[in-house]
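Section 5.1 Outputs to date
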Amino acid sequence: MARPARTKEKLIDLIDDLEYHEWTIDQLHAELGSRGWDVTYSSVFRALNQLEEDGFVRKLASESDKVVFEKNIDHHEHLKCETCGGFVSLDCVLGDELAKTIHSATGFVVRSHFFSGSGVCRNCASRADD
């Protein structure tokens, strides 16, 4: 079994390698296993929580019972598909404009924000049209 520090190091390497940037603990655990790394689910859970505390990853709001993580990179917003559960990332434009509108209307200075919308993604919408 992997030591906690090694699990954290392997997760950092894995997250840097992955092409997609939102994952559940299940997905990361399975991906580590497919790469030949013998690590328990609870070790992945603990290492991800440490990486969140360190600011390397952050948790996304999820309506399911699965927690979704992403690498903490440039600020961006999220749209979650109600059909497939996938996420679409957007540049930070929405939040910045909303912060300006809030400030103009109320005088409130927004220092931090997180936007998460829900709807139906392009792929699921096109399947529904068929």
